[in-house]
């Protein structure tokens, strides 16, 4: 599980006195704790790794946006700090499917569901998320699904 990897990495980073990595891992754990608290009121999550990946994706997106803004604002030192945090966050994310693998998964789901047009996009996206939520960037997958159904 990714949470166990985070705990082990935190201990290793603390022992190696890597303060930046330790701080980044603690940020991840804090975001996960906040997400766990939010999830208490909703339906229980079946796959914990899916929840962790969702949080990591959100954090990575925030860091990428911050890096872009800092570079536009001519603040390279802040962009470098965000890039270091992004590297730590991405190190815990599972391997992503390539574009070809994503298209193959979309085509398989499309064939199974008998999806023919854009009206079936919601069904295909729901099934794609159920099967590959931890290994896909759903924003990119959405564009691919739309292209395959058009």
Per-chain topology:
Layout: H1 2-15, H2 19-39, H3 48-72, H4 76-91, H5 99-113, H6 121-132, H7 138-149
Distance between the termini: 38 Å
Number of strands: 0
Would you list the SSEs in sequence order as H and E?
HHHHHHH
The dominant shape is globular
Give a written overview of the molecule.
The chain has 150 residues and is mostly helical. It folds into two domains: 2-91, Orthogonal Bundle (Hypothetical Protein Yqey, Chain: A, domain1), CATH 1.10.1510.10; 99-149, Arc Repressor Mutant, subunit A (Orthogonal Bundle), CATH 1.10.10. The chain is built from seven helices and no strands. It is globular and about 55 Å long. The relative contact order is 0.11. The model has no long low-confidence stretch (mean pLDDT 89).
Features:
single chain; 150 residues; mainly alpha; Hypothetical Protein Yqey, Chain: A, domain1; Arc Repressor Mutant, subunit A; 7 helices; 77% helix; 0% strand
Concise synopsis of the structure shown:
The chain is mostly helical. It is 77% helix and 0% strand.
């Amino acid at each position: 599980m990714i949470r166990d990897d985070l705990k082990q990495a935190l201990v290793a980073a603390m022992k190696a006195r890597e303060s930046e990595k330790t701080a980044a891992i603690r940020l991840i754990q804090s975001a996960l704790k906040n997400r766990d608290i939010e999830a208490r009121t909703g339906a229980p999550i079946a796959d914990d790794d899916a929840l962790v990946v969702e949080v990591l994706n959100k954090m990575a997106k925030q860091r990428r946006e911050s890096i872009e803004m800092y570079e536009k604002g001519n603040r390279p030192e802040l962009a470098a700090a965000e890039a270091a945090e992004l590297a730590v966050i991405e190190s815990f994310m599972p391997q992503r499917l390539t574009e070809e693998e994503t298209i193959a998964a979309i085509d398989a789901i499309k064939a199974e569901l008998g999806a023919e047009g854009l009206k079936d996009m919601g069904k295909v996206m729901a099934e794609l998320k159920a099967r590959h939520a931890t290994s896909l960037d759903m924003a990119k997958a959405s564009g691919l699904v739309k292209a395959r159904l058009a």
